[in-house]
Specification:
2 domains; 45% helix; binds nicotinamide-adenine-dinucleotide; 5-stranded mixed β-sheet; 7-stranded mixed β-sheet; Rossmann fold; alpha/beta; 15 helices
Length: 428
């Protein structure tokens, strides 16, 4: 497993090598403020106790409380958490929201736990985290394999432990507990806003653009749905186990409706090559495809929306798409990034494309603190404003300095973080 934190720092150093950043500011970002390791004992349904490894990395609180998701996955590691926390610091600076960066996780395959075990694990993790999180300290949110229900358990346990009503301690919670309208779809919706603006800036017609999306969870589904609604043709979709491609969508037909695929997935438990409505099976339109094949499909746009390091030296040369819109965090290795850049493929980087999630998390936190709630339309308008504002600044830096969107995004983040360091006297 490559050291993901070193990979993340490579991206930062590439931007810093342009010579516009104070080396001391760069050095400050190379070290997370705090790395927490926990052991979480959980009483399993059979009465036995199992121990799980938990992490929280608080990378930087320069611009505000630590902010970042919690993931449950079998491969969670300290280096991965550090990288993801660092990306949150960068992303919140690009989004220009008053947060620092953090990330947490538990090494567990949640699919192997019962709902009761998952709840006890979450409450145990919250007990371990309790002293280190809070509305003005560190604000968790959902990430891979965690959702609103898990955030509700976290909130409940935190409130029991502190004796305070504290909805702003966590975002991505259910709406009856103070969650925000639009949070669930925010990451995908935000990605669609950025991608769509890029497509329009380059005079391309969305209705003629074909898209393949890898990952069909919160982000992948919402992104596919948002692009489908804007007229893009979704011709490939995959989750961790399976995928489908729609060859007819590349012709005159409109491509797949992600909602339809979701319904079928919910029925069958997986994305499959055949979709049966009543007795009629549609095996003609949809062919089976693996998540790996999906990335090298002959399409205009690929959207990695699952996990890190899926675009590597090995497959970067084979990518046929003209645009890669990174919705997962860290889906492209630095080596692959260089290959894509050399081949003239545009990468809309994770720290810009997927910032819609943390942006609406910030809206949720702001509503909780003020004791107000905004309508879905208000959230939508504000999200669009924020996404477009960040996209335009990054685009203009990229044009001016003749650098990639990723390097431009890092330059923007570095400038904002350096200004905060200077204002606090961290650097002179
Ligand atoms: P999720 O758990 O809801 O969904 C993950 C999806 O990826 C699932 O469909 C899973 O089957 C699939 N998957 C896992 N491994 C895969 C593989 N090797 N190939 C293909 N598919 C695979 O998680 P999510 O919240 O949608 O997060 C996805 C990515 O987006 C992560 O990198 C996460 O850090 C990032 N992200 C999430 C948010 C958010 O708001 N949830 C915000 C910003 C970034």
């Amino acid at each position: 497993m490559p050291n993901l934190f070193n990979q993340a720092l490579t991206q930062l150093k590439k931007a810093a090598s342009l010579g516009v950043v104070d080396p001391k500011a760069l050095e400050a970002l190379e070290f997370p403020d705090r790395t927490l390791n926990f052991t979480i004992p959980v009483r399993m349904d059979d009465g036995a106790t199992r121990f799980f490894e938990g992490y929280r990395v608080q990378h930087s609180s320069l611009r505000g409380p630590y902010k970042g998701g919690i993931r449950y996955a079998p491969v969670v590691s300290e280096s991965e958490m550090k990288a993801l926390a660092f990306w949150m610091t960068v992303k919140c600076a690009i989004a220009d929201i008053p947060y620092g960066g953090a990330k947490g996780g538990v090494k567990v395959d949640p699919k192997k736990l019962s709902e009761g075990e998952l709840e006890r694990l979450t409450r145990g993790f919250t007990r371990a985290l309790c002293r280190f999180i809070g509305p003005w300290q560190d604000v968790p949110a959902p990430d891979v394999n965690t959702n609103a229900k898990i955030m509700a358990w976290l909130l409940d346990e935190y409130e029991i432990l502190t004796g305070e009503h504290a909805p702003a301690v966590v975002t991505g919670k259910p709406i009856p507990l103070g969650g925000s309208q639009g949070r669930e779809a925010a990451t995908g919706e935000g990605g669609a806003i950025v991608l769509d603006q890029y497509v329009k800036d380059h005079g391309m017609d969305p209705k003629k653009m074909t898209v393949a999306v890898q990952g069909f969870g919160n982000v992948g589904y919402a992104m596919a749905k948002a692009l489908h609604a804007r007229g893009y043709k979704i011709v490939g979709l995959a989750d961790s186990r399976n995928g489908v491609r729609d060859d007819n969508g590349r012709g005159k037909e409109p491509g797949m409706d992600p909602f339809h695929i979701l319904q079928e997935k919910q029925e069958k438990g997986m994305i499959s090559g055949c979709y049966c409505k009543g007795s009629v099976c549609d095996c003609e339109h949809y062919k089976k495809i693996s998540p790996e094949q999906l990335l090298v499909m002959d399409v205009d746009i690929i959207v990695p929306a699952a996990v890190e390091n899926v675009i590597t030296e090995k497959n970067a040369k084979k990518i046929k798409a003209k645009i890669v819109c990174e919705m997962a965090n860290g889906p492209t290795t630095p080596e692959a990034d260089t290959i894509l850049e050399r081949r003239g493929i545009t990468v809309l980087p994770d720290v810009l494309a997927n910032m819609g999630g943390v942006t609406v998390s910030y809206f949720e936190w702001a509503q909780n603190i003020q004791g107000v709630s905004w309508s879905a339309a208000e959230v939508e308008t504000r999200l669009k404003e924020k996404m477009l504002a960040s996209y335009r600044v990054v685009r203009d830096i990229a044009r001016e300095r003749k650098v990639s969107f990723r390097t431009a995004a890092y330059l923007l983040a570095l400038a904002r973080l350096e200004a905060a360091m200077r204002a606090k006297g961290v650097i002179k």
